[in-house]
Write a structure and sequence with these properties.
2 copies of one chain form a homodimer. The first copy, chain A, has about 300 residues and is an alpha/beta fold. The first copy, chain A, contains 12 helices and 8 strands. Chain A has a single domain, classed as Alpha-Beta Barrel (TIM Barrel), CATH 3.20.20.70. Chain A has an 8-stranded parallel beta sheet. In chain A, helix 3 links the parallel strand 2 and strand 3. In chain A, helix 2 packs antiparallel against helix 11, helix 7 packs parallel to helix 8 and helix 10 packs antiparallel against helix 11. The longest helix of chain A is centred in the middle third of the chain and has 17 residues. Chains A, B: Belongs to the HMG-CoA lyase family. Chains A, B: Keywords: Lyase, Metal-binding. Chains A, B: This is Hydroxymethylglutaryl-CoA lyase.
Amino acid sequence: MVVQVVEVSPRDGLQNEPEILSTASKIELIRRCVEAGARRVEAVSFVRADRVPQMADAEAVMAAVPRRGDVSYIGLVLNRRGLDRALAAGVDEVNCVVVATETFSQRNQGASVDAMLGAWTDIAKAAHAAGVRASVTVAAAFGCPFEGDVSPATVGDLARRLVEGEPDEIALADTIGVGVPTQVRALVSAVTAAAPGVPLRAHFHDTRNTAVANALAAVEAGVTVLDASVGGIGGCPFAPAATGNVATEDLTYALHRSGHPTGLDPTKVIETAAWIGDQLGKDRLPGALGRAGWFPADPR
Amino acid sequence: MVVQVVEVSPRDGLQNEPEILSTASKIELIRRCVEAGARRVEAVSFVRADRVPQMADAEAVMAAVPRRGDVSYIGLVLNRRGLDRALAAGVDEVNCVVVATETFSQRNQGASVDAMLGAWTDIAKAAHAAGVRASVTVAAAFGCPFEGDVSPATVGDLARRLVEGEPDEIALADTIGVGVPTQVRALVSAVTAAAPGVPLRAHFHDTRNTAVANALAAVEAGVTVLDASVGGIGGCPFAPAATGNVATEDLTYALHRSGHPTGLDPTKVIETAAWIGDQLGKDRLPGALGRAGWFPADPR
């Protein structure tokens, strides 16, 4: 079964790095990811530049990404103002975030879960009216840094309410990297029941070394779209020394060796990881494949 | 289902670290692991001191480990001379290694697979005659650095021949960290068919970020004993910058959160990892839990 890997390093990765890259380097990162085979890229977010300075040049980045019919660029938006910017910048898809717990939603988004549900529906309808795909991520779906465990029933209830925006896709995000495969199965099952027919995407962080296990469990449960970040760049805002997004090269290795082609070229992904590591001044990336090498030696 | 974690840091971990610890520090490591809940410990190897200087003080270590009825100490042996030393030192179990591929066997053990099969049978019979348990590890069972892929049929054939030594346990080792869960299932199935009734143990390296996925797959396939090394110490002889043994704290997190108690105290395991990291002069350990913290915050 083919699995699509959505490259999120340009947005979720870079947004959580202390170093701010030049616009040219961001465009080069996206170009290299596409060259390595990425066909969906979370490229930018349209949020307040004073809150997220890493994404202040979203319009300039989108103006220069390689436009080709087979690559879809995703912009993160959280309100109508962001959506208007995203549409003007020519994104192919917008993605909105709704947090699974009230405390995290208030602290991270500055809004209640109900308010974000309303924003999502509003954004989705306007995006669809403009002919742009709209997906929604359920953040902290596997656990919350403030409220602890999150039950599959809670996520299922949320998914039921997300359906009002007619999502092209619902993404289940383990934002703080606490999930395990049993939870993946329970969550996929709960959300499938709550939002029948809506394609699912999964977004895993490797903060506690469970991301690859979770990703493979998600695929076995029928999820065919997974997020990842080259090199594993991005880190974890809740644990400064810890890992964030699962590395694209690690996920690619696990998928290819498990019989799931991704269309990605492992050599180019690993090279891109090394390149972005240099750009960010990192002497060590979370991704394991860059240190270990592919197996068998030639990935093709 | 309860899963037993065999702590291998004192042998497989330390043997692959450039720094040689004092005998007192090795004993302290073992004491701390037992205090954290380890009930089987791969404590030492009885091999040639000129080849493996890290293990030269095996007798002195074994003379000072905390002896208690509920803890079993394993000594690695590769020939009769090693067995005699192990028995004299009072180990509770011996473990022998047979490599799945000819090239790796010749290069690593300096002996053919056939020769090592003979050595295993000889060791096992003598150990059993002395009232000591004897287990055998199939090294490179998931892939070989020289020969590449290893088929489950190859490992099954080997397991069939290992039965002559009446193993108390067969351990399947991903020595270079290349396996994925589909392979785990195929291997467990092949070895169970080839050596019916022999309990299985699995030994995963996290070199390519698949160890936790493989461990959980092994447990789902019925394996109830897994090897791990606190902090993930040990490294990988085939890729100097890469990770070796899966970290005990990472495995414990994945198991506990998946509903598999281990008897280990996560806080003490993480403290022991930090302690051994200091002893080895490492500013960064492979284990993720020490950087990320348990979830939810209180592991008990």
